[in-house]
Design a protein that fits this description.
The structure holds two protein chains of two kinds.
Chain A: H1 2-16, H2 40-51, H3 68-79
Helix pairs in contact in A: 1-3
Chain B: H1 5-20, E1 29-30, E2 37-41, E3 49-53, H2 66-79, H3 87-90, H4 94-107, E4 111-115, H5 118-129, E5 135-139, H6 144-151, E6 156-160, H7 165-174, E7 181-186, H8 198-207, E8 211-215, H9 230-233, E9 242-246, E10 257-261, H10 263-272, H11 274-277, H12 284-299, H13 302-321, E11 332-338, H14 340-352, E12 355-356, E13 359-360, E14 370-375, H15 382-398, H16 406-413
Classes of the chains: A mainly alpha, B alpha/beta.
Chain lengths: 82, 415
């Protein structure tokens, strides 16, 4: 999972952060106001395209997307990664 | 009684929290008609104070123009006060259709539909024309009414970084598989006063088979050489698929708005847009006033030319005085103070000096981006602007921020 964690973190930084901002694997993204609910869609689509999976809307909740670590937990369900 | 003490206490606590956080909004009562010179009661119960209004959306100074007021009187006499109906039952008069035709001509589009407000236009248009197979890609700083409208629509929703064309193109590629793609932006961003590069946006939309939506509420009547809006400024008249705008700002300032653009999209709104179907028609008196505004604007560009000169004079004066401004060339000139309390204190001191300009801070603008938003009007004369500059300089000296950089202001007052 280390690879996914790094890739997701890099994507979050590039996609959502302003210059000088920092996040780590546990930074609250949605509840912390870094990613809004509209912008979450691009993250979901990025993951689906990158890992060739389909994440049902019911699973793509703000809670499940609230940190890089939580996203990686969710992705385990779909990629089978251990 | 269902309104129990617990419920009341809950609301009281929420209101107290707003007050404690400095987010409680208080109205200031104006005892005159809207103009550059107004009489204001503030705080409530205080004696009236004559001030110069530098925060109205009255860009062209037409809100109380005698010709517009006369046209409204005439409209009241000939078409009555209210219609007591939505448009499609018995709420459409000849003048409603006439205003739609005139707005179509003014904006250079195919057709137009009126809404009770631009807030309603934005609330209704997305759901009327897009479904779950489609995608909306919006600038991250679009107006709150657009965000609300998008939330009501089943299309996939995504955003791009403010006015960032590379990021927009990435998003268009990401969503290439969607049936219909709609790119959404403001024409002039109301808090910053900047305009997105619509020529580049049109090119990107053509390249990626996407439609373009522009909310031109802070542009219609004065941006572009003939005041048609940001699409005129960027040379893309006829190429923006959906324009929404308001009659509540430069175009008379009363109320009402519209969706203008491709005729099929306008027709879809007529069939499906809920604020159009379930809310009253625009009052005849307002329609008559807006028609006269369009008469005035079609005869001469004098007012928008004066506004452009006023805005340049104001921006130059503030820059030379040493204020930090948001870059731009529109009549929205934000004076950056960064700290929320400083913005509130600055606004209060300006009011004492006879200048009415409001401080904006989080959540209206991002944290650390507090400001006084000034808005210039063709109704301002040079003496208004000079008095305004003198007041800003006096208050700026009090807080010792003239000639200071963003970093220096933040170091002194916090963010």
């Amino acid at each position: 999972m280390e690879d996914i964690r790094s890739i997701v973190l890099e994507y979050v930084k590039k996609e959502y952060l302003e210059e000088g901002d920092e996040v780590d694997f546990d930074t609250p993204l949605i509840s912390g106001g870094i990613v809004d609910s509209f912008s979450m869609v691009s993250l979901k689509r990025f993951l689906e395209n990158k890992y060739k999976v389909s994440i049902p809307d019911a699973k793509a909740t703000p809670e499940a997307f609230d940190s890089v670590n939580k996203i990686c937990e969710l992705m385990k369900e779909f990629t089978g990664a251990k | 009684m269902a309104y129990s003490a617990t419920v009341r206490d809950g609301y009281e606590k929420q209101l107290k929290d707003l007050r404690d956080a400095g987010l409680f909004k208080e109205e200031r009562f104006i005892h005159s008609s809207q103009a550059a010179d107004i009489e204001v009661e503030f705080p409530r119960g205080a004696s009236l104070k004559k001030v110069i209004n530098m925060c109205a959306n009255n860009y062209l100074g037409l809100s109380s123009h005698p010709d517009v007021v006369q046209a409204a009187h005439d409209g009241l006499k000939s078409r009555g006060y209210g219609m007591s109906s939505v448009r499609f039952i018995c709420g459409t008069q000849d003048i409603h259709r006439e205003l739609e035709r005139r707005m179509t001509e003014f904006l250079g589009t195919e057709d137009t539909i009126l809404f009770p407000s631009c807030m309603d236009a934005n609330a209704g248009v997305f759901e009327a024309v897009l479904e779950d197979k489609d995608v909306i890609i919006s600038d991250r700083l679009v107006h709150a009414s657009i965000i609300d409208g998008i939330r009501l629509c089943k299309a996939v929703q995504d955003t791009f970084k403010h006015a960032n064309m590379e990021h927009l193109e990435e998003k268009l590629q990401l969503h290439a598989d969607k049936r219909r793609k709609l790119v959404v932006t403001d024409g002039v961003f109301s808090m910053d006063g900047d305009t997105p590069p619509l020529d580049k946006m049109v090119a990107l939309c053509e390249k990626h088979d996407a439609m373009l939506f522009v909310d031109d509420s802070h542009s219609s009547g004065f941006i572009g050489k003939n005041g048609r809006g940001t699409h005129e400024k960027y040379g893309v008249v006829g190429k923006v698929d959906i324009i929404t705008t308001t009659f509540g700002k430069a175009l008379g300032g009363a109320s009402g708005g519209c969706v203008s653009g491709r005729k099929e999209i306008v027709e879809m709104c007529r069939q499906r847009a809920r604020p159009y179907l379930f809310s009253n028609t625009i009052a005849p008196v307002v329609v008559a006033g807006v028609l006269r505004v369009l008469d005035i604007l079609s005869k001469s560009t004098e007012r928008r030319d004066k506004l452009e000169a006023n805005a340049a004079y104001w921006r130059k004066g503030l820059t030379e005085a040493g204020f930090v401004l948001k870059a731009g060339d529109t009549p929205i000139v934000p004076v950056m103070l960064f700290n929320a309390k400083l913005a509130q204190d600055f606004s209060r001191d300006l009011f004492a000096e006879g200048i009415y300009a409001v401080g904006f801070f989080f959540p209206v603008v991002p944290k650390g981006q507090a400001r006084i938003r000034t808005q210039i009007s063709a109704g301002h004369e040079r003496n208004h602007l000079d008095k305004g500059l003198a007041a800003f300089i006096k208050v700026g000296k009090k807080y010792d921020i003239l000639g200071k950089t963003k970093e220096q202001i933040i170091a002194k007052f916090g963010q």
